[in-house]
Every structure is written in structure tokens, then in C-alpha cells.
Design brief:
- This protein is an all-alpha fold.
- Among the domains are: about 210-410, no CATH class; about 425-510 and about 545-580, no CATH class.
- It is about 60% helix and about 5% strand.
- It contains 25 helices and five strands.
- The strands form two sheets. It has a three-stranded antiparallel beta sheet with strand order 1-2-5. It has a two-stranded antiparallel ribbon with strand order 3-4.
- Strand 1 (about 440-445) and strand 2 (about 450-455) form a beta hairpin.
- Helix 7 crosses helix 13 and helix 24 (about 545-555) runs antiparallel to helix 25 (about 560-570).
Length: about 575
Amino acid sequence: MPLICISPDKIEKLKEIVSTNSSISRAKRLRDLFGSDELAKEANLLYEKSLLLKNQDKALDKFLSGFTELGQQAKKEMREKIAERLANRADKIQKDELLAIAEDIWSRKYKVDIPFETVKKINNIKIQSDDLRAKMAGTVDGSDQRIAYGLKEQELTDVISGLKSPTDAMGIIDTLKSTSKDTANRFNKDKGVVGNIGEGVSLVWDVSTSAAYKAFQSSMDISYGLRQGFKVLTTNPKAWKENWLEAFKIFKTLGNKEKTEQVSRLWKARIISNDMYQTAIDSKLAVGVIEDFFPKTWAEKIPGIGNIFKASNEAFTVFSQGARMSLFEDFIKTAQSKGRELTPELLKDIATLANSITGRGSLGSLERSSSVINKIFYSGRYIKSSLDTFMMPFSNKLDPFVRAEAQKVAVKNIGTIGVLMYTASLFTDVEFDPRSSKFGKMKIPGSEDRWVDLTAGLGSYVVLTTKQALGQTKTQKGKIVELNKRDKKGNLVFGSQTRMDVGFGWVKGKFAPAPNTIAQFMEGRDYSGKKPTVPGALRRLYTPISGGNAWETIFSDDESIVKFLSVMADVNGMGTVDYSKFK
């Protein structure tokens, strides 16, 4: 089509004409302007083509934005490929071509071959989801329209998860077969002897640090309420109550897999359809993520008892992520009430605080190594969240508003712990000396030496810091002992405890199940000071912590009321320690 030349005096008139919404009116006015039907048609066609390309560009951007799982680099690569094809073609690119490009990008992102039909399925689900999203606009929280949208988004997530981890949807037998096949493939003859030895070492590492042990040990309790949820309770009791009740609804479905799935999906649908959900995701709030304490689904596949583990997993997720969302929204409301502009930087800091309060601290630059950290420790992020209680109030990296809120959280936590310790001291023994491992614990009345933690685990950080700073420790008998004690010649006294012993003992207590067991065998003693055995170690690796503690407590020599109080404390997250084992 030839270019059209017009005189300068007609340019403004032309701009006015092309802004006309009606194509019929625009065509008539162009004829009047040019005085020629042919020129008017050419001009109108040129305008329509430009408009088509503009709309096509917008449509392309909208298409790419739908792939929420893709990172910015992947989207950029997809955009460049499409632009390249458009540059070589005059006609409009077809949907199937877009999907073909998507297939290539997705396959490279997840390092698996994605069938073209699956890509089309993803696209169709996304189209339906977008339609449901439009219909839910303006409806109240929890409406049918919102639930429908949330369920459709979960369907999309399920498909994507299936691509990334195909064994998740398999039964226990098929999972074992697939894992065995993958293991056999690792030992390729082409790698040679050295290569296969390396694979053997790698396999031993993978097995010994398997996250499956966490799934077994973390289940069958509601400890999240007063452990990971302790800071939520002191910060926002209303949010704690609402989310604990939601989690307990799922926990009650232990014996019914279908019911567990139904209740869990409805809750997730409400979260996903929340108007603040996308803002939360963009701000790095940890919702829709896999929790460190339940990283594997192996235990859920065991016939007969699998749903006990699944319900525990889902209940933990509902509480922790529901509480994060509640805190995130409440902090935003507080910021707005103080006239703060909700910049991306402020929102990210708010999300960081909400994550930390709910037991998921940010590892910062170490996030890239989080998988390795969580193989060694039970949860690196949980350790960081505990440290945040003491560090965040003084962090200059946080927005002043968020830093002030972190200070309030710290005061509420420390104040609550202080009140609990003082109140308990009115009717039983409580340890106030931070040089003692019993610091922050109260003795269960009537027990020989069984103590309950009142600090949700925060006391151990105070104990470690105090012992290292003062160079002293307090024994079980109440005697103050110097660390690194030396004789007159400057030699370390045989059998005396060192700062290194104290530090390693603390770190060992944070180890993941398998590394902890390995450390016990290397030391030649378990947590109670006895010589570890293989049967005992295996039993602990595959036994829920609360269940194991309850079993030992029930068969102890304590009175029935002591047993009851101890079991209740353990199951609800107030860890108990029987110090009589250490005598």
C-alpha cells in the first residue's frame, strides 16, 4: 500500500478524524478531506492496520502476563521470539504459534518436555480463569464467584506442579518405581569408575539428608499454634484465632482424605481470590509456597495412614500462610492510616515482617542456597525468623514504619514471655537464669524433673548468647561453671566445657533429623547422653516428634496428671524436656 502525502494544513484535521470512534463517520470525513474515495479507503486501511498492530501488541502483552510461573527473563525471551516472527510476516500470528513458542519456553524453564496438548490445556484453563476473575470483581469475600475462580487457579497450579514434579501425583508403588529407575540411571557406564563413585557419594548424601524425615517427624500435632504461631498470637490475637480454627478444621479430617482435600482447596480458593493476593505475591509474601517443615509428600502416600500426614501438612500450611496474609493486610491498613504511600519497597518490607512473624525469615543472599541449608538444618528460615525477633527492631535496611512495627512485635513477645514466667513462678519452679538450659521453662508440678518451655523456643537464643558472652554455664544441679576452664599451667582442664562445645551443642539441636542422627553417632551419645543404636535411630527418624514424646511420657513413672499436662504441652507446641534423663 502506497504512502499518503498530505499538506501540513490538513494534519490536525486528520488527527481529529482518526480519533473518531465510528468507522462509518471516519470513512465519510476522510472522503471529504481527501476529495477521493480511493485515497479515503487507502487512508482508512492504513489506520486500521496500525490499530490492529497496536491492539495485537497489547494482546501479546496480556498473553505473556498470563504466564505467572515464568520469570522476567523467560517472558523477555518469549517476547523476542514472537517479535521476530511478526517481523517476518504481514498477517496476524495465530494462537497455535504463540502456544508453540510457549511450549518451547516452558520446556526449557522446567527442563522437561511438555506435550503440546498440555500447553493448550494450560492456556485454556488460564482463559477460563481470566473469565472467572472478571465475574468475581465486586463480589464479597468467600462468594461463589470468588471460590470458582480460586478453584480454577488451583487447577492451573496442579497442572504446573505435575510438570515440575511428576511423582507427586503417583501412588507409593509407582513413586518407588520411578525413584528406583532414576537412581539406576544415575549410574551410567559412560561415566567410568570415578564418575560412578561420585554418583554413589551423591546418592548417599541425598538419602541421608532426605527431607522425607521432616515430613514424618513434623506431623500428627497442632504444635504450630504455640510454636510457629506464638508471635502471631502476641502480635494479632484475632488473626491467630481465625487461622488456628481454619487449620483445626483440616486437622479434624485426619481419617478422611477426600474431606481433607475439599476443606483445604476451599480455603486456598478464598486466599487466591483475595483482592490483595497478587499484591502479596508481588511483594514476596510467602503464600502458595511449600513449607520447610513439610517439603515432601512421601508420608502422605502410605496406605491407610497417609492422610494423617497430609492433614497435618495442610493444617500447618493453612495456619502459617493464612496468618501471613492476615498480618500483611493489617500492616497495610496501619500504614495507610498513617498516610503512607504503598510503594513496592514498603510492601516488600511489610511482607518480610509478616513472613518472619509466622516462622519464615528471609535468608537474603543465602536464599539461593536454601535447599542445601534445609538439608542440614530443620528449617533455616525458621531459625532466621527467631533471630529476627531480636534483630529486626534495629535494622536500618527496613522502612522506618516496618522497623517500628517490628519493635512493637518484639516488645509484645518479650513482654508476654515475661508475664508467663512470672505467673508460672507463683505456683511452680521457673528458671530465670539465662546461663541455664532451663531458662524460660517451668517445672510441671508433681513431676520429678519435667519442664515446659514458655518461650516458644526463643529462650535458647538468649541462653546461647549469654553463655558465650559471660563464659559461664549453669549445671543441672544449679552450679555455675566457667567455660574454657584452665589449670595453673594454662592447659584446658580435662572434661571442662568450652564455648565451642556450647555452640556446637546449640547448632546440633537445630539440625535436620538425619544430620542430627549422624552427629549423635559421631559423638557416641544421643540427646539423653546414652549410646545411640541403629534401631533407635531409625525409629526416631520415622516417628512424629510429638507422638514419640507422648509415647515415652505415657509409659513413664510420672503421675497421670503430669503425663496429661506434658502430652498436651508437646502436642500444642510448648515443648517439654524430661531432665531426669540427663542425670
